[in-house]
Amino acid sequence: MAHAGPKLSPRLGPRLGWSLAALLPLAFLGVFFAWPVLAIVALGLGEGGVLPALARADTWDLVAFTLGQAAAATVLALVTGMPVAFLLARCRVRGTGVVRAAVMVPFVLPTVVVGLAFRALWPDGGVLPIVLANAFFNVAVVARTVGGLWARVDRRAEDAARALGASRFRAFTSVVLPSLAPAIGSAASVVFLFCATSFGVVLVLGGARHRTLETEIYLRTVQLFDLSGAAALSLVQFAAVIAVLVIGGAARRKREKALPLRIEPPRRPTGGEWGVVVAAWLVVLALLTPVVGLIVRSLATDDGWSFAGYAALAGTGERGTLAVSGLDAALNSVRTATDATVVALLVGVVSAVVLVGLRRHRSWFAETLDTALMLPLGVSAVTLGFGYLITMDALPGDFRTSPLLVPLAQALVVTPLIVRIVLPVLRAVDERLRQAAATLGASPWRVWWEVDFPLAARSLLAAAGFGFVVALGEFGATSFLARPDAPTLPVVIARLMSRPGELNSQMAYAACALLMVVTTAAVLVIERLRAPSGGEF
């Protein structure tokens, strides 16, 4: 009698299947993230790399300024984001939808657009506008991350403290604030990470006087051709990023464990809570100030108000500054962002489905994959672009000149955001629905199509829109990789601002205003589509 082959245990079989399905995101991360980053590490460790760079005093000046401005912007984002978090989480007042959309617009605006918006208010740039601009970006991170937990903090403990005679402030500091600490720590780590790797803002507002590790890497690569020095600085930056990611991951795990089952419905503010509501609206008005300033600057000329900058986008700028017209660059941006969104959706949705499947089986691999998918968020886009320049020639046909390279680089940045939007929705799907479909004979693919997809469709559309606007404004990696004959609109804006001439300046501000309008419209649509559990981004 023939013996049957070895059989997989009921638990091992599905787990192995989900692990095999993870090969797609792992392959994507391996080729377009791990390989370029490891190449930079190897180059930085080579002769003339890390040790000489670390021995120079100006390296540590760069590190000190990078960390100092990031810390200052993080504190400012926390202070201004907390009232907004309270308004969104606890208050039932008119206009909260406007507030939610208003704080999200800065987060998805291109960095070069924000830089120019603050340059319209501070023409000479400097440290203060850099800090303000970085905080401007990240109020949404604080409002959403802290607000998401605040909405679930049980009010009864706070009410009990008030009944025992504690002041409103004492009840907040002794009861509410400790409950919010994991979310505040998580938000602070993410904001610090974004501020430390900010590129477009520092490039526009810092100039030659104020440079961070990010802008110095760009300078040494593009202008000085000091590849070993740039690699050494990338390695220093990467070490700092890893440290912040470890701290942020620990805070995020604490936040997830801290989530209680009780969901507190918002209620109308009373007493001193109205002061917090007013503070939140003042923050929103402050966020709108650079936006209004940019629009005004796009219309103001030496001869009065004019749409000359917008009309000039049909051309190539003063004395042929651009290789293509502004409209061609805009169309190229749309095409590139669309391609990047399609790739990011494919990889991101597969990753989210795999993570849900692995989490059901309590696989340690799920935590590892989740962390790996978040790494591109914390690594400098400039570092990635630099890594592509020194590795992608090894792929068939010298991939550095391929039109697919920019969309793939943008997809790498967008994929973690899509995962963070889709994953909470898929995790919220009742497992009994999946089990019932499987019991009736549906394959895993059919179960996902019939059960998960209808419930997650709105979040998938929101993730696609969110990914598109982020890719549309990506500047760090694209500034390295975009071909001269196919630049994106953010790259064109930076080039226009680097050339003299009033027309070039008007074109740059007009292009920024158009990008801002598109971004705002997309955010309004996304907010209507987003599910209540749509993640912290």
The rough form would be described as: globular
Tell me the Rg in angstroms: 24 Å
**Span from first to last CA?**
59 Å
Please identify which CATH superfamily of the largest domain we are dealing with: MetI-like
The CATH class of the largest domain: Mainly Alpha
The structural domain count equals 2
Number of DSSP strand runs: 2
The percentage of residues in β strands lies in under 5%
- What fold name goes in the CATH topology slot of the largest domain? MetI-like fold
The class by helix and strand makeup works out as mainly alpha
Separate helix tally: 23
Order of strands, widest sheet: 1-2
**H-E string:** HHHHHHHHHHHHHEEHHHHHHHHHH
What is the arithmetic mean of pLDDT? 79
Give the helix level as a range of percent: over 70%
Ranges where pLDDT stays below 50 over 5 or more residues in a row are 5-10
**How is the biggest beta sheet arranged?**
2 strands, antiparallel
CATH architecture assignment name of the largest domain:
Orthogonal Bundle
